[in-house]
Amino acid sequence: MRLAVNIDHIATLRQARGDQQPDPVAAAHIAERAGAEGVVCHLREDRRHVQESDVRRLRQTIKSKLDLEMAAVEEIVRFAMEVVPDLVTLVPERREELTTEGGLDVRAHLPLIADVVKQLHEKKIHVSLFVDPVPDQVEAAKASGSDKIEIHTGEYANAQSEDEQRRHLQHIRQIAELGKRLGLGVNAGHGLTYDNVLPIVRISSIDEISIGHAIVTRAVFVGMERAVREMVQLVKSH
Ligand code: PXP
Fold first, then answer.
1. Which of 9, 32, 49, 69 is catalytic?
2. Of 119, 163, 169, 225, which residue is the least packed, with the fewest Cβ within 10 Å?
3. How far is CA 203 from the centre of its chain?
4. How does pLDDT run across 73-87, given as a tens digit for each residue?
């Protein structure tokens, strides 16, 4: 399993003062040095953290893979086609949310999503769809022509009891296996922490996990390099 590090909240800290520091691109370089095998950022329509210039600098300077999270809207699709990240992960976006709050409803928006997948494929950009752990959505993802899914682990992360957590974990495992059977790459992410990541790491059908908030908050106390190294150790422990 690979760890991809999301650097959005380094940019959140920078935007708090409208200054140049801390630089999310420098954080990405440190993450790579510490063993991250991918860098993730979310260019939101409201540009609340990552800016276009950050994505361009990431594209030019990182050595691992760049995964651009974005909504399936024309302006950002055009931007992605110009910058050509290694992977685009399509996510739903609502301006008032604090973070991405659920998976894409691929089934309901299949023609639109299939069209965006086709446009991105013309530039040889791989596409992943962020979906809840629900079979219908994985089958719709396959029908859209996407290359991968990213399983939303938020409900697992927010479970209020061990029983509930076990149930969500079981769904995630089944969905990861279904994704593989359909020939899709399988990523997972959202809300994963140093405390809850191990059961996810043990799911062999998951290729990559994407973690941001937990790593950046730990980095405030121990530094980015150590925060990433500690997570890499957990991810590589199985
Ligand atoms: N995957 C997706 C699709 C996301 O939108 C996010 C949050 O930006 C993450 C993973 C990372 O979530 P977290 O910051 O909770 O680790």
1. 69
2. 163
3. 17
4. 999 999 999 999 999
